[in-house]
Amino acid sequence: MTSLNLKGFARLAAAITSILLLCICTDVLAQGTPLRYEATALPDGHVKLSVVNQSNSPVTALAVVGVRSLLGSNQVDRSVRFFDSLLDPFGPAELATGQSYTFVLFGPNPPLDKLRTRTATLEAALFADGSAWGDPKWIETLKQRREVARVSAQAALSVLIQAKTDGASPAQVLQRLNASQSAQLRELHTTAERQMVELTLSETKQLIEHSAQRQLNGAPDSSTLLTRAPAELTDDAVDRLTFRLQKFADAGNGSGSE
Questions:
Q1: Cα separation, 89 vs 247, whole angstroms
Q2: Are residues 69 and 116 in contact, defined by beta-carbon separation less than 8 angstroms?
């Protein structure tokens, strides 16, 4: 076979692989727990994974892992996605019986003719009745994300309450929150845990900034806004953190344990 034919054969093989990838669709009934999930490789390069709750208890958290590999390379890309109705009380609600949630992983790059495989798997789930299903490692990851978020929210609330007692300006509050965030991150080692601290503190700081901007519209810059604003402008952030902590308390601290 000539060099030209070899190249043509390689292109044909890549094209066939791409077509096969478009047809990948797995429908799985998770053993031991009535969760059904379907993973589909889409023509635009994404992988869609839909999970349906077929249990009698609402699903409150899910962990999904996607993996794709490249032709002619040992490179393997890994994508992790979470759903958690407790961590985002203003986002998607828990999944009641018969309800579904869809994850979308990866994207159009690299192109399909460069890919060897694309897969996505449901790794773990937590339920409102305290039960759990899946890989013990991922069950623990879901629980640990909740615990870190709870501790971080409690730490942020303590900072805000003390700052208000001290009469600190929102600018000073932000400095204290940044210091608290740095201290927490130094104690954590996993990406999932560090992301929860950053998410909790980022939301808290944004609420303070937005409150100051509403109150002092027309100030020359955000620095001036936060220096002039009264400490009471942290109230929105206090209310949000209090609400989050109440959600944890209602769910038994969100442990999802048996």
A1: 8
A2: yes
